[in-house]
Design brief:
The chain is mainly beta. It is built from three helices and 18 strands. The chain has one domain: Sandwich (Jelly Rolls), CATH 2.60.120.
Length: about 250
């Protein structure tokens, strides 16, 4: 299963200094900073929506290029959604795992029986759908909570091509939708859904990730400062005011 090299970043990971920024920031050589991830200090811990614009300026036509928003749920699950160029294949990705320390550990130590009680990924056709995005074009990435639903008992696959697991009891979970669309409205819109027992996002990051031969070759993207919405809050979206690179 090729999902991402570093996968989840532990929710306590950001160290670095806070950085006040204008409307956009760069992750890549043009930033004058080698860090590939950004957190957003001061954001609340009861979010139901996160959105940001991204314009990839350099992607490498080999290995993995991934430009994404990662959301961390308070039940120790996480999910990431964004643009991928994987060994020359253009696609999107929206999926998640249980946080067992972050990095490759979350992939090696999957436990579908227990993990399915916390999260249910969508089928591969939604999780990693083909999407012909273009470098230099601006896209909007949005992660947003939908309805509370009941998933009936039955056989389920936690993620990807993993084993089928018998789930004896119905599960009550929330829809979490990832929407990918061109900022100029010209091009396809992809909407993918996964399910999580958590009703809110506790924190989130934005990052560029590389691997399998693409690292160190100038991968770069320009991101807007993200906007978020809280549970029950009136007044629409709020823009983050500072970032911390890590």
């Amino acid at each position: 299963m090729l999902f991402c090299v570093h996968a989840a970043v532990a929710a306590s990971a950001p160290l670095g200094q806070d950085e006040a920024v204008p409307g956009h920031f760069v992750i890549g050589p043009g930033a004058g900073d080698t860090h590939s991830h950004a957190a957003f200090p001061g954001t609340p811990h009861d979010l139901v929506k996160v959105s940001a614009h991204v314009r990839v300026t350099e992607a490498i036509d080999k290995g993995l290029n991934f430009f994404a928003i990662q959301v961390n749920f308070p039940n120790k699950t996480w999910a990431h959604g964004g643009l991928q160029l994987v060994r020359g294949k253009y696609q999107m990705n929206w999926g998640g795992l249980v946080n067992r320390g972050g990095g490759s550990t979350d992939y090696r130590v999957e436990n579908p029986v227990s993990d399915l009680q916390l999260m249910q990924n969508g089928p591969n056709s939604e999780r990693s759908a083909p999407y012909a995005w273009k470098a230099g074009k601006e896209y909007v990435l949005t992660i947003e909570r939908g309805r509370q639903v009941t998933l009936p008992p039955g056989e389920y696959v936690f993620i990807g091509n993993g084993p089928k697991v018998a789930v004896a009891e119905a599960r009550t979970m929330w829809e979490w939708r990832f929407t990918l669309k061109p900022a100029d409205g010209e091009g396809p819109v992809q909407v993918s859904t996964l399910y999580d027992a958590a009703d809110r996002i506790g924190s989130f990051y934005i990052w560029n990730e590389c691997g399998y031969g693409s690292c160190g070759n100038g991968q770069s993207a320009t991101w807007s400062m993200p906007e978020y919405a809280r549970i029950g809050a009136a007044g629409g979206n709020v823009r983050a005011q500072a970032l911390k690179r890590f």
